[in-house]
Design a protein that fits this description.
Distance between the termini: 79 Å
Number of strands: 30
Strand content: 35-45%
Structural class: alpha+beta
Largest sheet: 11 strands, mixed
Shape: globular
Number of helices: 11
């Protein structure tokens, strides 16, 4: 049997590709062998990745080059100068500072790497790329403005386990095209080499290809009201998570087949809208806007009763589910994206729109050289970015809200007088650090800069509890001072803690400032900030209560 040269080469590459996979698994922390047991927890300390990225960033930082003249003459020096200028032009046009970093990382992980250098006859310039082990191509893009901008394209991979698959994405509701806020791309369950064309009318969006047509309605009328069957409900919100647990009566078998028939809308991935409220003389009044993604449906049969338990998560869950597909870097050569802008891009990947209630000058005016590596988690990325600024973030529905908490913020509500407090707990603790020492690098002077920020009252009480921060993005003493004060502000907020158990306040939001009056707890109109909320609803027991976790203002 005659075997083509291409087939032979593909077969010869099997060992190399297998080795690549093993090395990449080790680099990304997938280092355990075999499948884990049920409920087994596996802990990996991935020093290999940390070491490679740290050494690579130092090795490839501030790379420069020079060409010496071939002889000591004005003509030779002129040739060397022009050659050096040409190399710098190629370097900047091809963004080689980024390509060098990526290729050096490939070499450190896989043991080899390469560049592809060719002449672009259309643009009349040198083009440099670093081809990967597999050959990816992207084609057949199609864009249409329906309710939002929606795009389809085809991704083709010609390596081992080759495929040609459509992917789709869309801009966020309320975002402009030029904002660049796109949801992470999603694979479409179809295989073709020609892509998918998108069209729409007032009611439907249409997809078409040579062997298939799909239609989807913009607005569905399949909403399902679960309220009459709720036995209990528990909503838990804190600074980085939100969970909704609903217990439904299923004695009549109404919820026996989720996702089918009359309850077709109740399926994993659907949206649960939660609107707590009261029946008042003016009718049913409630607070809307909180939504959760349904993650699981559990049926329970016990004690002659049939129950269904729904568990859902808010946008923090979606953000935690998103991992970066590729490397992204901002502000390497110019200041284009502030901390707020980078946060907005990451949130958009998980389908969340950033809105500003208030913002610090640092959030809008600090442009860090910030890199996201493949596999980095969205929630961890946002939490890291928030350490750069005094601002905080909370999520309701498909929106994330940015707030700059000020010690002078006015109280929005009072507890303890007209609104009773059933239980109270109040604590004042020590600050995690009374001094923040920030190290940066003054690029104009070429020297290390060190800036200290103090809470002198705390230092006098508890000596020198110092926290060190090292960030080479900080190039001025003003930036160092802003970082130190931001960390001190958050330490002051978290040093005060406590909780109150109260009748439900449907309009209460995270990070609101409230007044607390509790004579037995020694408080009279004491200002506190809401850092967490738990709402419990058990109508059969007559329970409708809210627990507020408190912090300093």
């Amino acid at each position: 049997m005659n075997e083509s040269v291409l087939s032979q080469l593909s077969r010869l590459d099997l060992g190399r590709m297998k080795s690549y996979k093993e090395l990449l698994d080790f680099y990304y922390g997938r280092q355990w062998e075999g499948k884990g047991r049920w409920h087994e927890r596996r802990l990996t300390f991935n020093y290999a990745r940390v070491f490679i990225e740290k050494v690579t960033s130092y090795l490839m930082g501030d790379i420069n080059f020079a060409i010496d003249p071939y002889e000591d003459s004005d003509a030779a020096r002129d040739v060397a100068k022009r050659a050096e200028a040409a190399l710098k032009k190629v370097y900047h046009e091809n963004h080689l500072e980024q390509l060098d970093l990526e290729t050096e990382t490939d070499c450190a992980v896989l043991g080899d790497g390469c560049y592809k250098v060719l002449w672009d006859a259309v643009e009349k310039r040198v083009r440099v790329t670093a081809p990967s082990g597999g050959d990816f191509t992207f084609s057949q893009p199609f864009l249409d403005k329906t309710d939002v901008h929606r795009a389809f394209f085809t991704e083709k991979f010609t390596g081992i386990e080759s495929y040609s698959r459509p992917f789709w994405t869309h801009t966020l509701p309320g975002a402009h095209y030029y904002d660049g806020l796109w949801h992470e791309v999603v694979p479409f369950n179809h295989t073709n080499n020609y892509g998918l064309a998108l069209a729409h009318d007032d009611d439907y969006a249409w997809l078409a290809c040579p062997n298939g047509v799909w239609r989807a309605a913009f607005v569905g009328d399949d909403a399902l009201d679960l309220t009459p069957d709720v036995i209990s409900l528990r909503q838990e919100i804190d600074q980085t998570s939100g969970v909704l647990t609903v217990e439904l009566n299923n004695d009549g078998g109404k919820y026996a087949s989720p996702g089918e028939g009359a309850i077709a809308a109740l399926a994993r991935g659907c949206r649960l809208s939660f609107s707590p409220g009261y029946t008042t003389p003016d009718g049913d009044e409630y607070s809307a806007g909180q939504t959760y993604c349904l993650e699981s449906i559990e049926h329970i049969s016990a004690g002659g009763k049939a129950l269904v338990i729904l568990r859902a998560r808010d946008g923090w869950g979606a953000l935690g589910d998103w991992d970066a597909r590729c490397q992204m870097r901002w502000n390497k050569a110019s200041s284009d994206y502030s901390v707020k802008d980078i946060i907005a891009v990451i949130l958009a990947k998980a389908g969340l729109m950033l809105e500003v209630i208030s913002q610090s000058s640092v959030a809008a005016g600090f442009y860090p050289d910030f890199t996201v590596s493949p596999g980095d988690n969205g929630k961890a990325i946002v939490e890291k970015l928030l350490t750069f600024v005094p601002d905080v973030l909370f999520i309701e529905g498909n929106k994330a809200y940015l707030i700059d908490p000020q010690s002078t913020d006015a109280s929005s509500y009072s507890y303890g007088a007209d609104h009773a407090i059933h239980e109270g707990r109040y604590r004042q603790g020590a600050l995690a650090a009374g001094r923040i020492q920030v190290e940066g690098y003054d690029t104009s002077q070429g020297e290390l800069l060190v800036v200290d920020s103090f809470n002198w009252d705390e230092v006098s009480r508890l000596y020198d509890r110092v926290k060190h921060v090292d960030d080479r993005n900080l190039t001025t003493t003003a930036q160092g001072g802003q970082r130190g004060l931001a960390l001190l502000r958050k330490a002051e907020i978290y040093a005060i803690s406590g909780a109150v158990l109260v009748p439900v306040n449907c309009g209460q939001q995270l990070y609101d400032v409230i007044d607390v009056t509790d004579a037995r707890g020694g408080l009279s109109e004491a200002k506190r900030r809401v850092l967490g909320m738990t709402l419990v609803y058990r109508p059969q027991r007559g329970e409708y209560l809210q627990r507020l976790e408190l912090g300093g203002v």
